[in-house]
Every structure is written in C-alpha cells, then in structure tokens.
C-alpha cells in the first residue's frame, strides 16, 4: 500500500536528500522548504530511517483536512483511527508547527489534538494514553497552514542525526546529518581522499568512514516505528540483516583528520574507537595553517570557528587570511569546502569562491564556501 511521507532536513539540503531518497526507491519525490515529500510502502519507511544520512525525521502523513477554528481541529482528530496505529499503553506527545496559521495559539491547537486522541481511546477502551513530553513512545506532528491541517506520525523517534556512535563532543559540534549533507554537496565519494584539518570531535570523519564502509547510519539505534501496532518485525529483521551483510570490512581509508587541540583530537579518537572505525581514519595533531595535503588531490572540508561560537573576532580575522594562504600554497589540485556562520569569512580568506551555498544549522544562517584550488588562479582580485 502506498503511503505518503515527509523527510525533514536542515534547510539547504533538500536536493541532496531528494537524491538519497530516490536512490532508496522512493516515489513521488518532491522538494519543499526544510524537507522532501515522498511515497512508498512501510518497508520503504523502515529503510529510509535506517539508511538516510541526511534526513532529520521521517513523518508518516495520516490526515490532510481543512480547518477554520480549534473545534475543526478537534473534530478531525477525534474521528481518526488512532487505535489502529498504537495502543492505549503508549505514551504520546503532540508537536505543532504553524505556517501563516490564523489561530491565536499553536499550543492550544496541540492540546485539542491531544484531547481528541485521549477522548477517542477513553470512549473505545475506558482508558486514555498518558502524555510524556520528554521521551514519548508516539510523537504526533501537526502542521497548520492558512486553512489546511496535516497530521503525521513520527516514525523516527529521536532525531536521525543521533546515530548512537558519536558519544563525545567538543565545542559547538556539527550535527551528523548536516555533516553528511555537506559531504554530499561537496560531491565526495568513497575512495576520494578527504581531509578535515579542524576535525574537532570527528563528525565529518565518522560520517565519511561509515559511508565508505557501507555502514547504515541507523544500525546502532531504535526507531519509533517499532512501537506502532502494524510494525512488521520480520520485515525489519530482514532489512537490518541485509544492511549488516552489506557492510565492508574495516580497512585503512584515505580519510584524514587533524586539529591543533590535543583534547579535540583525543575526543575524535575515542569516537572512532567506540564506533569501530579507529583503523579506518588517520589522525594527526596539526595547526590548520601548517597542515600539508595527504594526497595529490582530494576534498578538504572544515567546520570553521566563528565569533558566536568560540574565540574572539581579532583572532579569527588573523586566522582566515592565513588559512587562505595555506590552501593556496599546499592544496593545489584539491577542492576545499569551508562551512561557517561568519558570512564575512569569504572576504577575509582572500580566495575566489566558485560556489556559496546557503545552509542552516538549526535557525542559524550559514554558508558553505567552495574553493577550487588551481595553482596560481585562486588569489582574489
């Protein structure tokens, strides 16, 4: 049976997420701001949760209706067959999002949905599900547009960037799915040398190594769809077994990380070891301004520090041109991708950008700057 889903993602990654879902067999792929609509059966939903490196959540659409007031919201929710999707013993939470919503309170609209669900269960069973706002079994998502309401069940549970492998973090770590999306935007493929010269806790390195060894990003965690009544345990067991069978044996990969901080480097080392990837990635302590290219060509990617995150402005104003000089002198033949929320960084680094890709880290507007490092041709005029 064909179902309708929405995969949310960091804004700016919709196109690469659409490509990823298409590769997983999704139909009806349609990009929207902050995510991708797609169609398929529930086994596709299982695979998307397990294999998507870029999605934040997979929402299963269960209702689309018109509304004009809070009572319409209650009436619509009260006739939906919630008992077909989960039992009264499951805890619930309602999350609401509004886009040009005319109602005074999204919170009150969410309470009306919660009341409708609980009233329906009480009418059918004499009991009502409990609410758990911290760690619910079932998350119900409501989207209120100008006159249309969409209700969905969250099939992911914890956000999908929580892989279950990066247990230690440093200052301002980048989220795993944003890192994976940046690698996709950079066009990185397994086998292409990759260097993160400011690796911090190693997020880019972990994502690249898992992809190179064909390790499904969700293989170490559980999902909310496992708590739904129609969960097909056998199908899920088969999908998981196929993913494990497709994993490649750990080998040394052309993936390199460095950092000036011994503490950050140790954090990255611990994360790689606990993920079973210590032998796949080469780590070295080095200043980004002095690091040398580990191969004749490849892709360099870095999550740069910025004023709101760490350090002071003067130190960053000194770092950026020095970084530009290092790239120009020692990375001819490489493509560099620098991610930052400092939108003035491109002026300070003094290199000609070939692409400036708007991305969002949560609500924070950022840029991914692309530099094609061709000898003698990168000095900004």
What does this 3D model show about the protein?
The protein is an alpha/beta fold. It folds into 2 domains: 3-154, 2-Layer Sandwich (VC0802-like); 176-214 and 250-372, 3-Layer(aba) Sandwich (Rossmann fold), CATH 3.40.50.150. The chain contains 11 helices and 14 strands. It has a 7-stranded mixed β-sheet with strand order 2-3-1-4-7-6-5. A 7-stranded mixed β-sheet has the order 10-9-8-11-12-14-13, covered by helices on one side. Helix 3 packs parallel to helix 5 (106-125). It is elongated, with a radius of gyration of 23 Å. The termini are far apart. The relative contact order is 0.12. The mean pLDDT is 93.
Structural key phrases:
single chain, 381 residues, alpha/beta, VC0802-like, Rossmann fold, 7-stranded mixed sheet, 11 helices, 32% helix, 24% strand
